[in-house]
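Subject: sequence -> structure tokens, single chain

Hey, anyone have a minute? Need the predicted structure for the following. Not urgent.
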Amino acid sequence: MRTRTGAVFIVLALSAALTRADRPTYPAAATRSAAEQPRIRYNVAAFEEESARRELLSETMVEGPAGTDFEIKLRGARFQLHARFLNDLISPGALKVRAEIKTRRFYGQSERGLPLYEEDEQKQTLQLGFDEKMVLLPFGRNNRDAEADQLKIEITPTLSDQSARLASGMKRPLEIKILKAGPGNSITVEASKSPHRFAVEAALFEDGREVARGSSDDFLVEEPREIRLEPNERASAEAAANPLAMSLSVDQYLERRPADQAAVSFDVYSLGGSQKTQRETFAPQWAGIGQINSTMSYDISDRYLKSSGRRYELRLSVKLAPGEFAE
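Reply:
Had a minute. Here:
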């Protein structure tokens, strides 16, 4: 039986720790051809440490082209870990890693003899060079008991020496190798490759004519960005005086061959004040799914300048960013 008590929430306040141990940059990063998409290898090792003891619980290798994401599910006798990593090559020698970690661990028993668990969920973004080591402490540093076990995950990315393509000319597939699965511990590793970078266009239509537009080709999946819709000469005086902006996230790329789709979520707000920096949200937490390169339409007439009597429509279009390709 699981119970949630004050003690559990106190433990939840102890956030997980993501740190980086610097090591020299992998020298081959600067010599790779810009036309060739490099393959990146991630070595993932889970350790349990107690005082001077360090035991390797599991070790896994994940390899794929730049932009390969992976998930790790590790289950032990007293804990569960679900870690998800979104990875982007932001320069020839550096990665942007977005980590989402969910943990659950047996904490002890209540006064009534019921089991208690400590749970945590954290998201963190960091940048690291090749052959640097990322250290994940899913349950934080163990300050309660210096002799107690501490779980540690070490992830080391390197540039692979394998070519991007097989001898046949086909793209080399993703690879997952379980190098060690410790006794009494269950590990599941999944890897995937899908587009991460997108271009988004947004347009405001007033009674059927376009009166404002904004765009950006620098959207990263699951990372919200703001788009401001700049009014044009066809906008009414009211629309020009009340410009719109939106905070939008491309949440997921959905493979629906032959017409793939994108799932988006967004807030729409009007910009006020003399510098147009005051935001008043009138369409919070909206969402939709549409085909890539197609238009998603939203009627906002009952929320934006409602007293004007005009019909206002927001149209969105999501495309792959320049240089981004679907597998």
